[in-house]
Amino acid sequence: MIDIEHLKHIYPGSRRQPARTAIHDLSMTVGDGSFCILSGPNGSGKSTLFRILCGLAAPSAGRVRVAGHDMATDAAEVRRIMGVVFQSPAVDKHLSVGENIALHASLYGIRGTELQERMADALSWTDLKDRLGDRVETLSGGLARQVELAKCLLTRPRVLLLDEPTTGLDPASRWSFLTVLRRVQRERGMTVLMTSHVFGEAEDADSVAIMRDGRLIAHDTPAGLRARVGQEVLVIQTRDAEALRPRLAETLGLAVGRYGDELRVDDLPPAEVPRIVEKALNAHRADIQSIAVKQPTLEDVFIHITGKRPAEAGAASDAGGADAKARREGAPA
Ligand SMILES: Nc1ncnc2c1ncn2[C@@H]1O[C@H](COP(=O)(O)OP(=O)(O)OP(=O)(O)O)[C@@H](O)[C@H]1O
């Protein structure tokens, strides 16, 4: 279990820059053996929280306990039970898979038969079983990420932290990595906290935590989060969203959010959906490039809660390719 209580982090200022509070009184719990995805727009404080959780930074106030051990007073024990996969590669690409794992093992004093047993076990979860002698530079990006995971598994962590581990991977490699991670997490009962901007990844999580401006603004199951957006969402693509938004809001008598060239109405009253679509088309057909009614995805939840599209938030999404310069206007708070 990861238990975060009233955490606060202030970056001290300098002559040129004022002090900045990156985390404001954040409390949350990741349950024992559960898989939590942490997300949020750029600058929301995810990296700061991640650095505190893996012991690279000390909080200005508050407390973190990992499996009951206080990070401030029992850091060595926390390090013993925790594994971390950082976003930047931590493998030597000129060495083989086996050599990388053995090198990591030597840092923990694991050698001989124990090393062989643990290496076989760690690799058994991955797709690397036949690649032990291959240099990491010859592996695909997805398999190279699995080497990082295998390194972590070697020490049999009870708690695993991963910082956007699938960044830069194609969808198939991302899927393989997550399948491996989810399998070992479930079967070992590991507690996993993983930062991610790819909302397809969050669908399978036990919980999704969303930060904004240093605060935790939501932490719930994927189903619980989707319920906040309502059963259905209206999404309209248009060339001039700024001009159409107030006119559409007036036509429909509903709050209309704008995200770049997209207009959205969340939480459509179910019985009224056909009438709403008809009204929008009758009044604004010439300005509407496409209109769709859909069940909310977690990406829709992110937009609803943070007021930003994932691309605007500095992220890649499964939907992909959204306008990074999108501006929020009139979106629900
Ligand atoms: N070393 C630092 N000194 C001063 N301010 C910092 C420092 N690192 C981060 N910040 C500020 O703290 C806030 C949170 O930043 P942080 O990097 O934790 O957010 P993030 O959610 O991880 O963003 P991103 O997705 O862009 O990595 C931001 O306002 C950022 O500018």
UniProtKB/TrEMBL annotation:
Keyword ATP-binding listed: yes
PROSITE patterns: ABC_TRANSPORTER_2 (PS50893)
GO molecular function ontology, one term from the record: ATP hydrolysis activity
Disordered as annotated region, ranges: 310-333
Alphabetical keyword list: ATP-binding, Nucleotide-binding
Sequence ranges assigned to domain ABC transporter in this UniProt record: 2-238
InterPro entries to which the protein is assigned, alphabetical: AAA+_ATPase, ABC_transporter-like_ATP-bd, P-loop_NTPase
Record field: compositional bias (Low complexity): 312-323
SMART domains: AAA
Bias kind Basic and acidic residues: ranges: 324-333
UniProt name for this protein: ABC transporter ATP-binding protein
Taxonomic path: Bacteria, Pseudomonadati, Pseudomonadota, Alphaproteobacteria, Rhodospirillales
